[in-house]
Amino acid sequence: MNGAEAVVASLRACGVEVFFANPGTSEMHLVAALDAEPGARAVPCLFEGVATGAADGYGRMAGRPAATLLHLGPGLGNGLANLHNARRAATPLVNLVGDHATHHKPLDAPLESDIDSAAGTVSGWVRRCRDVRTAGADAAAAVSAATAGRGRVATLVLPADVSWSPGAAAAGAPPVSRPTTSPSADAVAGNAVPDGPVAEVAAALRGGGPAALLLGGPALREPSLREAARVAAACGARLLCETFPARLERGAGLPAVERLAYLPEGALAQLRGVRHLVLVGARSPVSFFAYPRTPGRLVPEDCQVYDLTGPDSDVRGTREALAHLADRLPDVQGAPAAPDPAESSPPTGPLTGETVAAAVGALLPEGAVVVDEANTSGLWLPAATAGAPRHDWLCLTGGAIGQGLPLAVGAALACPGRPVVCLEADGSAMFTPQALWTMAREGLDVTVVVYANSSYAILEMEYDRLIAPSGTTTGEQGCGPARRNLLDLSRPALDWAGLARSMGVPAARATTAEEFTAEFARALAEPGPHLVEARVPALFGPPSRTGAPSTPETPSTPSVR
Amino acid sequence: MNGAEAVVASLRACGVEVFFANPGTSEMHLVAALDAEPGARAVPCLFEGVATGAADGYGRMAGRPAATLLHLGPGLGNGLANLHNARRAATPLVNLVGDHATHHKPLDAPLESDIDSAAGTVSGWVRRCRDVRTAGADAAAAVSAATAGRGRVATLVLPADVSWSPGAAAAGAPPVSRPTTSPSADAVAGNAVPDGPVAEVAAALRGGGPAALLLGGPALREPSLREAARVAAACGARLLCETFPARLERGAGLPAVERLAYLPEGALAQLRGVRHLVLVGARSPVSFFAYPRTPGRLVPEDCQVYDLTGPDSDVRGTREALAHLADRLPDVQGAPAAPDPAESSPPTGPLTGETVAAAVGALLPEGAVVVDEANTSGLWLPAATAGAPRHDWLCLTGGAIGQGLPLAVGAALACPGRPVVCLEADGSAMFTPQALWTMAREGLDVTVVVYANSSYAILEMEYDRLIAPSGTTTGEQGCGPARRNLLDLSRPALDWAGLARSMGVPAARATTAEEFTAEFARALAEPGPHLVEARVPALFGPPSRTGAPSTPETPSTPSVR
């Protein structure tokens, strides 16, 4: 077999089923190899950012990697932002990048560029395949790297001559541990949890003083959440959650966690008074952005920080560490802090972020996968959906907007039996609208809600936070032509329903809460993709001509972002 | 002033007028600085690939740089593909990338990434501003680097704390030579052309034997074209042109040049028998992609290659070198080889790439700027437009598709009095459709033609070239499920007219040559942006069920790509 066939066969043998692809000439042998491999599913993406974001969504929900298929340096470049998000999510992902033939590279042909350097900025593992005889083993090694620990982006660069040359051999699945586990493996792996942190943390929690567990990554899956709730019940510790979790299991029957606020002022208020902060799959909290007069590190000065599991603990190891911790604390027979069951009814009146959230909370179906890139418009979503039927909540982990629609594509392919609800800010959705076409092509059961507030509202807020207080010259009461041009999306307003239909996705527009509820319900009920354009006011905006903020009720501390 | 104000003021002082921007929180002080700077034009782009491609188009047509404004590593990543194209075009471009505050970077906040490494892959110059006191000088140095020689991408990374800190000073224009020149500078700079290559080339051309000049970059502007035509008339040399020129001046009254073919077989045929190949602003030709049984270097073995000007000669230096060469050859009083005047009449009948080209050739207005990302559908364009009124032709220089629509945005802003015609393949246009919104926002006079063939037709051709001859297993006569899924854009078909309207661009669909001619004429006649969706058959396609190619008339050597 040739190198391309060995790579595809090896990835298949290691459990990779789906390839999110936008190939070019240098990847044609990989396309042919996919043609020849039964069971390989090639999903077309009209832009590489869709491919990488979809692979992220797939990996988060499947717990094992999908592969991408990208065309040289520019294809990798187009996929870079969502690979950055995948890296921050610790998603297992095999990033397959074709390159010119080895002998062609010194000629510096038009598409030649430094793939390896660009790949290094987003990958936990990068390898360039240099010999057709190792192509299969290199592919297996990529899966091994992608699935080690919590998971990472593993980039394999495959030159065209390695793809087309004969003499390759497929490699099987490497003997590595996977994030998922079996009961028999549990017993063995229990020894892997070092007792040190557990004993130290248990002693601290028994010693009293306000304590909080900051849960992140694998600690936000059900097994860990239940153990964390035991710990909380035993010692009164609060259960906090990182601001933008990759995958949070939540809803009726599951212990509730409180997400750290996006703005540092909010997170500092949440952490005030905490004396013991136990990190479980999360990192010590820092401000998302720097501001001139706000600290970057958010832990109170007199707070002791413990890391229970280290940065690379997987789902199994994290649950075990929490169980060991709970076992060392008093056994409290209290029920875990499950949220109240939903009592919400569909909202009425004007359509706002708040009424959209109420409708989502009222109608969210059992087992939904919620992709949240709602930004400022999504402020009310966590509270409104806390008591909804069980669901997974997937966030923008790396701050590179344009993640939501692709993530929904991947989640839907990973979970064919589950409804996917994608809650999208309009500014963010415009970074990767091509994902809508893939939803239509693949017939994915995704309900997209676009919050059409015609604004980069978060930047309107940040502009006021950063510029207005300092008295910097901005002209016209803090609203000069650049701000008006760069943060406003209303001239012309984007017709999201029309845009979706142009790519084959049925769509409707809602301007009242009643309309939204009806359209959202219809989209959920019908199979296949749908888009509902929710015309909502922006939460933040430029000062009006009189110099006062245009939004009368500005929450002082947005709790989500 | 603060660092952001110094950077903006310095860029303005060095002649930068337009900022193609998609800022984020870390760039809010730059937005405020743009607000405070009269004469700075901030152009909003809904995706960074639009910003970088627009800056490329602006720089090609204005001959001086626009600036981008990008948000951290992911923003740079999204702009990377079109920066790659700008690098290949040698476009002067100041790529301004915001970063976290210096003290925030060690905290590894979610958006932290290695900006410098990614920037290095596309930039001829990268600098990180480390001190507010040098911010103004750093910005001036970026302009200086961007405009040196032919031009290059100069990336300046500006941390947020440098932006917001006081103590900065604006810097003026540095004393560097610019690509454009004045008559007085000409006389002085004549000495800069080394006589060695000129004398050697003149001797070779006088010595006889089939010769060709391969023109590229600055040699494709009118002054050089006229001197090259003198050389050709004097010694019978052919005038060839690089395959994808950044900016080719052509049309009625200008010397015609023959573009090298995209496929190596075609270029090899064009170069067969040439004994003296003189590079003028072009590089020694190589194959765009590697193929198993085709050479990468396209120069015949017994051909001597000369480089008249070196790789970094600007418009002035290139013209002078050609003039010096012509002066050393016999003075032939023949007219330059201008193409025949246009005799075309609007086409009738089915709409195809050929009839679209005929309509474009018949209707192209005087002074048009043509952006060509038509790919396979554009095969007939060079011949059909050779005798059209004078125009500039801008190509996809780096092979990173998704360049055309953004390039048209930048060209229109650089040339407000000239009509821009953007000829787009549907597959390529889907990489950066957000550019349509910027056209609407800015009211740009761009006529977009989308060749809607619902196919990655060039990959259909390449698949057959690469896979079918080698007998590799592909299943179903060379058309398995992956090929059918990944190269076909017809399920669902993209509604380009609807997509354009959703972003505020008036649009129409044409299915016959008559309809296309009418809609194209109307779009040219009306101010502001328009899109015409031209539904054309794909030139290449998968084998039919009987195993025969689906396209009956496959040209053996596409002359464009």
UniProtKB/TrEMBL annotation, chains A, B:
Domain Thiamine pyrophosphate enzyme TPP-binding: 389-533
Thiamine pyrophosphate enzyme N-terminal TPP-binding domain: residues covered: 1-106
Gene3D superfamilies in alphabetical order: 3.40.50.970
Pfam family, one: TPP_enzyme_N
CDD domains assigned to the protein according to its UniProt record, in alphabetical order: TPP_BFDC, TPP_PYR_POX_like
Region called Disordered, residue ranges: 168-187, 331-352, 536-561
Stretches that traverse the bilayer: none
Residue spans of biased composition, Low complexity class: 335-346, 549-561
The entry's keywords: Thiamine pyrophosphate
InterPro entries in the cross-refs: THDP-binding (IPR029061), Thiamin_PyroP_enz_TPP-bd_dom (IPR012001), TPP_enz (IPR045229), TPP_enzyme_TPP-bd (IPR011766)
Family: Belongs to the TPP enzyme family.
Name of the protein this chain belongs to: Acetolactate synthase large subunit
Source species: Streptomyces anandii
Lineage of source species: Bacteria, Bacillati, Actinomycetota, Actinomycetes, Kitasatosporales
